[in-house]
Give the backbone structure.
Amino acid sequence: MYNFYQKEDPILDVDGLKYKLTDGYFSGKEAEIIECNTYNSVIKIPDHVIYKNVEYPVTRIKEKVFEGKSLKTIIISKNVTIIGESCFENCSELEKVVLLGGLNSLSKNCFYNCRALVSINLPAYMSYIGDDCFYGCGSLTKIVIPKFCNLGANCFSMCRSLRTVILPEEMEGMGSDCFSWCDKLESIKLPSTLTYIPSSAFNCCKALRSINIPENVTILDSSCFSGCDALTEVKIPVNVKEIGVYAFHNCKSLQRVSIMNIETKLMRDCFSDCPSLMEIVFPKNEMQIDDICVDLCPLLSEQTKRHIKITEEGKRRAEERTVKSKIKRAIAAAWDYIGTAIILLLVAPILLIGYFVYMYAVKLSIAIGLLALFCFIVGLIIMLLIGLLVEIEHKFDWKYNCACLIIGAIIVGIIYLLNK
């Protein structure tokens, strides 16, 4: 049944979808989906709709039309060329998307946070996938990128089940954080046409075991491979002019780096906090790098250390760590004596609480218990803050819990006296 609403352009309602009909001088007759009022789990976008015996091809879907809907499958016809921003955002039950061929791009946030999305086919002539398009699609396991298609920022970020990515040789660019936090991604072949790897492109891809950096790449931007825990070896091609800040920071398994060009500029912390890094192969003996490029890399070989230049910043960091280490050791040494003090300090309060429980109503003991719990929480917060400052690893044993209780009680008591 058709319902009509006459405005500047006719509005047609078919099966819970509202279409805005236009008849442009250049574009001809077109229909745009502007609203969805159906709760069907499967929706198929038709090739065209009919109004007054005239066919209007469905060419557009307005932004946010299906946002948050409970659909599971969407089939988009070949006539649709434009899907608006956030069109299917937060469709948490959407599992399958079928694109029948007309699209040449996907807009920003198009399938943002579609957590159940498992399958989608991208048309062969698609040229661009917008920013955050598949962000948070946690069930997506495989994606095949069409020829000549470029990727926007955060395009597949937080796709934490993504295992297989096939990039075309014709691809020229990808945005920052494109594949960040893809925990299951073990390998990916980057196309030879790439000249730039953007910031955080593969940040925290913890399962990534190997990476081929194409010969045409000139810049590895900041944090591009930071936190890739499984990465063991990296070869920096001859055309790379700059390795950005934190480019390979905190790659826990990285053991060997080969730099092919003496003119490659290494920015600070580009290989910092790589605890397994043993060897950096340099193109010439006279090449030197700043110590802050390889900060917190304790296993570096003597051969590699010959290429490291001590800087003022490196000295400052070392001094800061020395001070923190002394504080940490002092607190750790004192920690063994806390147990005895805690026992002495707790004897009287425990006897007092026992007396109240014995002599007075249970309500009073409950009030005391709640007060003790509040004191414990306050003390716990203080102890955690202290631990963060001096980098102490907390062990929640009886000493720690009692210390939290006492410190919290002291602080609560001080606050009470100040406000009395």
Remarks:
- Residues 73 and 190 are 31 Å apart (CA to CA).
- The mean pLDDT is 85.
- The first helix runs from residue 302 to 305.
- The radius of gyration is 31 Å.
